[in-house]
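so the lab meeting is tmrw and i was supposed to have these ready like two days ago... anyway. pasting both below. for each one the top line is the aa sequence and the line under it is the structure tokens. i havent really looked at them closely yet so no promises
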Amino acid sequence: MAFLDSTVVNVALPVIQDDLGTGVAGLQWIANGYMVTLSALILLGGSLADRFGRVRMFSLGVAWFALASALCTVAPTLELLVAGRVLQGVGGALLTPGSLAVLQAGFRKEDRAQAVGAWSGLTGVAAAVGPFLGGWLVDIGSWRLIFLINLPLAAAVLLIARRHLPESRDAGAPARMDYAGALLAVVALAGITYALIEAGAGAVPPVAVAVSGAVGAAALAAFAAVEARSASPMLPLGVFRSARFTAANLVTVLMYGALGPLLFLLVLYLQEAAGYTALEAGAASLPITVLMLLLSGRSGRLAERIGPRAQMTAGPLLVGVGMLLLSRLTPEAGYVTGVLPGVLVVGLGLSAAVAPLTATALSSAPERHAGVASGVNNTVARAAQLIGVAAVPAAAGVSGAAGIEGGFAAAMLIVAAVSVGGGVLAFVLLRERAQRVEPHKGLFCGVSGPPMEPREPATETGEGGPSGRGEG
């Protein structure tokens, strides 16, 4: 449900715009409301699962997500729809790391890689199915169906979890949770996002935009201070002492900061300017997902042999070239000659870069922080997409008078420059060969963020099932 929603909603945005009478800024909030809470709380969600029970927090996340989806289904106004999306993000932050923790604790050590590989493969399937499913539901009925479909899925998942998943928790989990850090992260992301979106929309006084930006920046600074002093931080800042880990995350910021606006604006352009149906617009970016599913595993194995520098340099550069090709798109251009070349090049670039990027982030942190390193990299990718979707339309004039047709080319030039910057950064900062790391098992699609890797269980207490230490 969580990964499906990250791709399915974009397809419905033009129809939602017409139904609720909102502008581009409103659509940005529909996309970003989910990402604000998901990005800010996903690390805390993993810690809560370790302390209070993995199945319990996973089930709570699924139920929460379903209730938020129900609110989205019946929302009569933009404000209530955005509120539902914000609440969906909270549910996603609980169920996503919780699902991985359940796998990690419930399988023997020798079987975990295969289980996590299946998890990753299914997230890739969700990313591939999402645009088709969203477009089909919008075309046959209503955009509300894309949220309504989560309710029977959630009911089935909760029933299966109750009957078949053994509970487990980490007996060594810290007694105190970093709630202050989580709250400050939400305030920081929400404040900065509001300032970026509303600055482009011009619907609120400039002083409100300035105050929002200042509050967001102050919360971000306070978050760093709290994490540095906390006995059990949500984000241990010590992982950034590794120059390689920091470099991998900087490249992640630039590449995903460019990818988020591309996926957001391309669907809008194809429907509003080029006259595509929702299903056609959703299917337009499918080659990106297919290429990543087919090639990412090979790319990871190649990076093991030659180091990640070449692919982490070439990948973002290729993504930038694909975006330059899309900047020449016109409403009259056919799919094969106008859209497909750029989409294929973007897909090749992502296929080259995502697996080495994830492996580098994981291998560059101390082994005891492997789960944290993966969570940080995933959070950084989502936050970068969030900020990109908020900032690029305003910078390109899409939120103002230019509209999607007039500002699309400028937006593609901006994101191309950002992605190319990621490739240059990788070339400059990644100089020596990477440590040899185990490649990610199974297929995955990094369109909505790098694959997460669960933490190795420490001391486990089982309730009616395997202990998570390779026994049972």
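ok protien two:
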Amino acid sequence: MQPGDLLDLDVSGVAHGGVFVARHEGRVVFVPDTLPGERVRVRLTDTRKSSFWRGEVLEVLEAVPERRPHVWAQADVDVAPENRPGGADFGHIISVHQRELKHRVLVDALERIGRLDAASLAAEPVRTVAEILGEGGDDADADADGIRWRTRVSLHVDDAGRVGPYAARSHRVIEVAELPLATAAIERAALALRGGAAGRIDLVQPADGRVRILHRPEQTSPRGRGRSRRPSGSAPEAPRRGAPENETIRERVGEREFRVDAGGFWQVHRHAASTLTRAVTTALTAPDGAPGVDPDAWHLDLYGGVGLFAAALAEIGGPATRVTSVESDARATEHAGENLVEWIGARAETDRVDRWIRRLRAEASPAERERLQRGVVLLDPPRAGAGTDVVADIAALAPRTVVYVACDPVALARDLGAFRDAGYEATSLTPIDLFPNSHHLEAVATLSRGDARG
């Protein structure tokens, strides 16, 4: 068969990446915009591989009860596939079932890639932001629908001056009439954009509520994810157009402020930084309430950004806790140093994590090694994960506890498997739905050294 051919297929499962699994004469066909249990009419888009094909759904012949009208009307299945915007690939699924499907993907990755006991490790269901923070409030309905959470949005400008997101699984710009996952202020600013040089436009709404508009004529790819929340009762100010990428903005987690560049990395969901801080703090707090951060040990925050998790570690351990944050972006490290200034034992270093941790493994003194062995290593790697070399170097330092913040279940499973082979056991795993209406999933895993458990 060739691209463009039509098939009526029964969908049997979900796969990583926001696609679903059907079969034709034994061959797997990956298709988006459907659900397990549905029968759909599919147009093939890629038949080059002998092991699997890809297609796009043209019509739902038999729907399941978990299907709903898409939260982004232009991305619904009744729109031509080439005109459906990307970024909300689970928006046609009721929220509770989205989380069930994400859990299935996580379990499959843990078992198949990590060779781990997923039944016990992933026993906890995917939790919502509200469940972790205990928040409701004025935007509870938006939280329930998984909309209005994005405080960072990237749009594109093509050679014809069209402004909008890319169509799903393409690099073709399409104009849209709404951006339901974005905050209302970002949506208003985005829909008012007109033309400009071809490239990308980033819109950022930090804690002060004012939208910054960053024009990037040349395509760049800053590290993705981010978020914050506008203080209740404050009205968003007018968008700031043409804001400099290195303008220092401020984000908030509880009562604490973090400096970050407007074009730098911060969590996308408006409550994500608070949610992850709470999850990390819970992971490092014993059932009797005792803190799991020894103030006399040496603790590491790898891929540390502007110091969000280093601050969490220091907050638990106390003002003299020794924490080192390592980040390759020099501007982020500069901000981390400012954000951690109140802790006399905290410092931020600019380097690639793989090089820094390898050098530490080779050069640490006996006294430093002893402090590291009583410490916590927290890592929040990019979507590709830390990799086996970094895992091996961390394990060679023998920290008492490792906390792994992950944004990709496959990378997480691979790295947890590598930690297991190096003598560490994952003792808890909390999956968090930080990206509602998309296939993405965050998770916080806690690992202990074999001789340190109990």
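from a quick look at the 2nd one: The radius of gyration is 23 Å. The longest helix spans residues 95-112. will dig more after coffe
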